[in-house]
Amino acid sequence: ILLTVVVIFRILIVAIVGETVYEDEQTMFMCNTLQPGCNQACYDKAFPISHIRYWVFQIILVCTPSLCFITYSDPADRGGHSLSLWSLPRILLTVLVTPCPC
Predict the structure, then answer these.
(1) pTM above 0.85, yes or no
(2) May I ask which residue range the UniProt record assigns to the signal sequence (predicted)?
(3) Computed over its alpha carbons, how large is the radius of gyration of the chain?
(4) Is the pLDDT higher at 5 or at 73?
């Protein structure tokens, strides 16, 4: 249950706080030349990935093993039904709400 709480907390932080804090990352960034496009190139060189993209990538990496396990688990546990795109929200809810049986 701790992993579920951590994942939900991370998603909330990224969705609520992260975008407002990092939405204007480049406004105060200054380049040492006035050449067109230098500001964007210098910023990309200094900061190759934004914080928001890193956080979303991290959340995806944390959730992927659980989703893979649920997707490829024993079909008898699902009552013999095959998975479809429509069952994905139910699977995600199961992963986020169901506590670890260990």
Answers:
(1) no
(2) 1-18
(3) 20
(4) 5
